[in-house]
Design a protein that fits this description.
Oxidoreductase; NAD(P)-bd_dom_sf; Rossmann fold; single chain; alpha/beta; seven-stranded parallel β-sheet; 7 strands; SDR_fam; binds nicotinamide-adenine-dinucleotide; 8 helices
Length: 262
């Protein structure tokens, strides 16, 4: 039997990037997939149902959860909806952009977990994978995005304890720099340098959306049946490489310093 046969996965932000790659992978495993997104970039092409929704609109999310519960009760929730933040100084990062980071990521994740996870817990089974970031584990010039992502990891652990007795697992994936339309926009605008990002990771490359999707599918599915409350980086070794800058950075097999990538 296919791994996700008879499962119904709801994926916020499933219209693009990591969410779309996850939707595609779960569809390949024969899951029914429903995408919640501001825009349907590609979900319907892969046979997913689509609901236009802003994850920070808790009432709208709850209404969709109520409707899906009556039609095909969701058994998996993946919260991928998100927007990347400009790397501004605090003086230039205004409160409206900061509030938006908290609203889309933290409030949006909580709203989805509360509406879908609460119903799973009442039914006695389900699996949730939230999306944090390496930016919520280390620090960087992302004073809204980073704290929101750190809070998502923390929230996920709390919900794992809350709903574990009801048979619902909650795990969190923390991607590194992943080649999605969101990252492409930052590269195109010159705000990010692809060679520098790749060189900062132990594997000296960026992450593919399909690689993050594999980790999400693993945690969401039956192979991870005893795993809950974890935060799993999928970052090509970005987190382990960072501290090496104090010693001159990463080095090659002969011990010579590795320069930047083109
Ligand atoms: P993406 O832009 O390709 O996809 C994000 C999707 O979320 C889009 O379809 C967008 O329409 C949707 N979305 C945005 N705001 C929404 C809202 N308020 N309500 C509903 N949908 C909304 O981006 P991505 O890179 O695939 O990012 C997916 C997740 O992964 C985000 O949470 C992001 O923060 C996180 N992440 C990305 C990277 C990276 O390098 N790309 C790294 C770490 C974490």
């Amino acid at each position: 039997m296919a791994e996700f046969e008879n499962q119904h996965a709801v994926i916020s932000g499933g219209g693009s990037g990591i969410g779309l790659a996850t939707a595609r992978l779960l569809r390949e495993g024969r899951a029914r997939v429903t995408v919640l997104d501001l825009a349907d970039s590609g979900a319907q092409e892969i046979g997913a149902a689509f609901h236009r929704a802003d994850v920070s609109d808790a009432e709208a999310i709850d209404a969709i959860a109520e409707q899906l519960e009556a039609e095909h009760p969701p058994t998996i929730l993946v919260t991928c909806a998100g927007v990347l933040q400009r790397t501004r100084t605090p003086e230039k990062l205004g409160l409206s952009e900061w509030d938006r980071m908290i609203a889309v990521h933290l409030r949006g994740t909580y709203a989805c977990c509360r509406s879908f996870g609460g119903r799973m817990a009442r039914r006695g089974a389900g699996s949730i994978v939230t999306i944090a970031s390496v930016a919520g584990i280390g620090t960087g010039p992302l004073h809204g995005y980073g704290p929101a992502k750190a809070a998502i990891a923390h929230l996920s652990k709390g919900l794992a304890a809350e709903w574990g007795p009801s048979g619902v697992r909650v795990n969190c994936v923390a991607p590194g720099f992943t080649e999605t339309p969101a990252l492409d926009r930052g590269l195109d605008a010159g705000a990010l340098d692809g060679g520098r990002l790749a060189a900062a990771s132990a594997l000296r490359r960026l992450v593919a959306p399909a690689e993050v999707a594999q980790a999400i599918a693993f945690l969401a599915g039956p192979r991870a049946s005893a795993i809950t409350g974890t935060v799993l980086p999928v970052d090509a070794g970005y987190l382990v490489a960072g501290d090496w800058s104090a010693y001159g950075g990463l080095r090659d097999i002969e011990g010579a310093p590795l320069g930047p990538l083109a």
